[in-house]
Write a structure and sequence with these properties.
- It is a single chain.
- The chain has a 5-stranded mixed barrel with strand order 1-2-3-5-4.
- The chain is 20% helix and 47% strand.
- It starts with a helix and ends with a strand.
- It has a single domain, classed as OB fold (Dihydrolipoamide Acetyltransferase, E2P) (Beta Barrel), CATH 2.40.50.
- It is α+β, with helices and mostly antiparallel strands and 123 residues long.
Length: 123
């Protein structure tokens, strides 16, 4: 009886862990688009701008994509050089995924569309 209770408890915990993870949907094509690179303070759970964490966004004519820097090939120091400018990126669009997690640990994360920047197209 005691073993069944422990087993049931472990199964319950395991099922909560599985349902808490978000499925990532990846578009397989590499896309190229021109838009404006924006840097904004991260908005905290309380709805206030962070004073020390910034997010990058890629604004095209109709879309505004979060850039998940740690999954791309272009790092923050390079992106900082282009903030506020019109730029052409090659990227992979993630239809749905966690913005703040890299999948190695379970953290509370913003979820939605984002891009992985593969490169900057030079003119």
């Amino acid at each position: 009886m005691k073993h069944n209770l422990i087993l049931g408890f472990l199964l319950l915990i395991f099922s909560f862990r599985i349902t808490a993870q978000t499925k990532t949907t990846v578009a397989q094509d590499t896309l190229i688009a021109t838009g404006k690179l924006i840097k904004k303070p991260m908005i905290t759970k309380g709805g206030k701008p962070s004073s020390y964490i910034n997010d990058f966004f890629f604004e095209t004519g109709k879309d505004n994509y979060f850039i998940k820097v740690r999954e791309g090939k272009v790092m923050t120091d390079t992106l900082d050089k282009y903030v506020g400018n019109t730029i052409t990126f090659s990227y992979i669009l993630i239809k749905r995924g966690e913005w703040d997690s890299d999948g190695k640990e379970i953290v509370q994360s913003r979820v939605g569309e984002y891009i992985r920047v593969l490169g900057i197209k030079r003119k």
